[in-house]
């Protein structure tokens, strides 16, 4: 079982030869990275370069390990970094902690149905 003393021993904790594909939402991939309990680099065949990372969150570490290719990571960081957030709704939960309840955003130049942008936001986006 992965713990704080062995989380770097991927080859002992997981059967890396029995990997299979998985589809995760952008939110789930981000959670794996942000809350990573396991984080290991995968070098190229000759030990040169970076092919990607092995990652698993604190919640998933007992069940699975994900491999994120370097190309996928670059695309992930680019899509998150280029997103334009233009509407956020927050509410306090029963403990009084403020929580995000809705975040509306779009990539540069992407149209969003069902949400009318305020005029000042439309103007600012038109100036880009």
Description of the molecule:
By secondary structure, the chain is α+β, with helices and mostly antiparallel strands. Helices cover 26% and strands 31% of the residues. It has four helices and five strands. It has helices spanning 10-13, 26-34, 70-81, 119-126; strands at residues 36-43, 50-57, 66-69, 83-92, 98-107. The strands form two sheets. The protein has a three-stranded antiparallel β-sheet with strand order 1-2-3. The termini are far apart.
What's the short story on this structure?
The protein is α+β, with helices and mostly antiparallel strands.
| Main sheet: strand order | 1-2-3
Shape: flat
Structural class: alpha+beta
Strand residue content: 25-35%
Order of helices and strands: HHEEEHEEH
Separation, N- and C-terminal Cα atoms:
50 Å
How large is the count of helical segments? 4
Please give the oligomerization state of what you see.
single chain
Unreliable residue runs:
none
Q: What Rg is obtained from the alpha carbons, in whole angstroms? A: 19 Å
* Count of distinct strands: 5
Quickly list its features:
flat, three-stranded antiparallel β-sheet, 128 residues, alpha+beta, single chain, two-stranded antiparallel ribbon
Write the layout of secondary structure elements.
Layout lengths: L9 H4 L12 H9 L1 E8 L6 E8 L8 E4 H12 L1 E10 L5 E10 L11 H8 L2
Antiparallel strand pairs: 1-2, 2-3, 4-5
